[in-house]
TrEMBL record:
InterPro entries (alphabetical): L-lactate/malate_DH, Lactate/malate_DH_C, Lactate/malate_DH_N, Lactate_DH/Glyco_Ohase_4_C, Malate_DH_type3, NAD(P)-bd_dom_sf
One Pfam assignment: Ldh_1_C
Protein name: Malate dehydrogenase
Gene: mdh
Keyword field contains Oxidoreductase: yes
EC numbers, comma separated: 1.1.1.37
Domain Lactate/malate dehydrogenase N-terminal: 1-142
Residues that coordinate or bind NAD(+): G7, A8, G9, A10, V11, G12, D32, N95, V118, S119, N120
GO molecular function: L-lactate dehydrogenase (NAD+) activity; L-malate dehydrogenase (NAD+) activity
Amino acid sequence: MKVTVVGAGAVGASCAEYIAIKNFASEVVLVDIKEGFAEGKAMDLMQTASLNGFDTKITGATNDYSKTAGSDIAVITSGIPRKPGMTREELIGINAGIVKSVSESLVKHSPDVILIVVSNPMDTMTYLAHKVTGLPKNRIIGMGGALDSARFKYRLAEALEAPISDVDGMVIGGHSDKGMVPLTRLATRNSVPASEFLSEERLDEVLQATKVGGATLTGLLGTSAWYAPGAAVSGLVQAIACDQKKIFPCSTLLDGEYGLSDLCIGVPVVLGRNGIEKIVEINLSDAEKAAMQASAEGVKATNALI
Ligand code: NAI
């Protein structure tokens, strides 16, 4: 199993590290445009192999896509991250050009690759990757919902004063502060609805804290987060590589599902060796349907900028 990660910055390197530590891939190739940067990150990570006990071979390349040839999965993290006060949508001017050229180069050298798009604004970048590569829709996956759901579970566990392993919850919709749709109605603590423990007001606080989860970290760090994004991407890569058939909310091209078409937006999907193997349609309440509709309008407005 060969995995390429484009962008050896904060998220790309974190993702490569989690993939290596989980020890399921034979090879990870890091690619960056900055001279020597990916090679340096790869060497540093390889020097953790004997310490962390993994056999994954990590190599780096400066913009040389011949080294990525034959990749089964490629993750696109190249592009600029947001600074405090910025929205993800404001990154589109620079990141659209980067995602376009990187997607084309990846597919040229690995025609059977499954792409995972991380660069923001992620739903629009996933849609752009479809437009430029023409890959079948099961092979282009946007990562946002897995991270937003992890942040939702963190906030739920905090409010419930429960261990995170007892808590479940999912965030669908667009990967933006306004567009996220945390499904508080379906959140549970050990199979019991979270609403049995928390007031409507407290659940709404959890929802609001989840929506600004990325912005809160950007305010604290001065740039966007990397540990949870890297871990979320590695979870998607592992589900595909190990054919796990796990369900994650991912951005995918919709064709009528959830009453939406011609956009990529986060919905639950089954991930296995063929990438997106099934889109799972859950029954939404009227309020959740309206939130999804509004979220889709936001994503489409950003798509109109590419
Ligand atoms: P970073 O600045 O640490 O790393 C980005 C890397 O991309 C840099 O090393 C840069 O040299 C490289 N790069 C730029 N243009 C390139 C090109 N044409 N080819 C190859 N490499 C290129 O940024 P960070 O924090 O890793 O974030 C990366 C992206 O991921 C941002 O757009 C950020 O907004 C997004 N992100 C998305 C998340 C999600 O849930 N979808 C979560 C966190 C970040």
